[in-house]
Amino acid sequence: MARVGKDDFVSGFVPHHNHGSVDYTSMSSEHVHQCLDVTSPPIQTQDGGHIHYTEGYVMFENGHNHHYKAFSGPAIPVGNGMHVHYYDFYTSEDDGHQHRVTGVDKPAPGNR
């Protein structure tokens, strides 16, 4: 079985991979939270592509935190045998408000 490292470029689909991301939430109630995330392994879709599921908590800030559960968008090839996913979701409502989290995760091997 071939091993794929973080700097290896792969054509096609890599069945066992995940993505990480580091982002900030939107501002709400005059503060933001940092969101550090690692996705599930890929979930294949009917069109032959894949998405990822994620859930967790944003970093504790301003006396509280928020929970989230979300799915990514489909794979977006970014060249050199790598791909990313776009995400756009809202956190739970806590302390009378919620936050939006949008962005693109870190590249992973496979161009689809």
From TrEMBL:
Domain of life: Bacteria
One Pfam family hit: YmaF
InterPro entries cross-referenced by the UniProt entry: YmaF
Name of the protein this chain belongs to: YmaF family protein
Organism this protein belongs to: Neobacillus mesonae
